[in-house]
Amino acid sequence: MQTKLTWKKNFFSNLYNIYANGQQIGNLKDKSFSQISNGEFNGKKYTFKTKGFFKQHTEIIDHVENSVIGEIIYNNWMTKATISIDKKSVNWKYDNVWNTKWSIFNSEGINIQYTGSSSKGQIDSNTDDALLLLSGLFVTNYYWQMTIAVLVAVFVPLWVTVLG
């Protein structure tokens, strides 16, 4: 099944809205200053709970079962991830150096292509798996947040030193 979706996010917002044919069908929202994001897609609700300090991973929790149904493992270079859900595993990776294209894929034929910026984008998929579609946005948002955190950690001390 071929699925074409779009998503929008205001610049300083922590809410992604997901649309099919102009109708909102889902969202992904971070809780500020928290390691928790909540997602909803076609009425199915999930929580992404990030754990760990140096080697972080994210648990995926189903709201109906209130149990962990999957996990996301990140690589050290913030360019790839492995998403495992119900004993099924897919790969996530950036497809260009500008990090405006990324994809989810596996050897069984799942292929989800994302394009976007910090405020909007498109999803082209050969599956309608709600959790995989949300997970692709979640990983990208996670990496964007980690990049900003690293930049702040590096440049704020430099800025303070220069001004001090």
Give an account of the 3D structure.
The structure is a single chain. The chain is of the alpha+beta class and 164 residues long. The chain has one domain. Helix content is 21%, strand content 48%. The protein has one helix spanning 130-163; strands at 3-8, 15-20, 23-30, 36-41, 44-51, 57-62, 67-74, 80-85, 88-94, 101-105, 111-116, 120-125. A twelve-stranded antiparallel beta barrel has the order 1-2-3-4-5-6-7-8-9-10-11-12. Strand 11 (111-116) and strand 12 form a beta hairpin. The longest helix is centred in the last third of the chain and has 34 residues, at 130-163. It starts with a strand and ends with a helix.
Percentage of residues in strands? over 45%
Summarize the biggest pleated sheet: 12 strands, antiparallel, barrel
State the helicity in percent bands: 10-25%
* Biggest β-sheet: strands ordered side by side in the sheet: 1-2-3-4-5-6-7-8-9-10-11-12
- Please count the beta strands (DSSP E, at least 2 residues each): 12
Radius of gyration based on Cα positions: 16 Å
Principal-axis shape: globular
The first-to-last residue Cα distance is 59 Å
Mean pLDDT: 91
Q: How many distinct domains?
A: 1
User: Treating each run of at least 4 consecutive H or I residues as one helix, how many helices?
Assistant: 1
Give the structural class: alpha+beta
Uncertain stretches of 5 or more adjacent residues: none
The secondary-structure element order is EEEEEEEEEEEEH
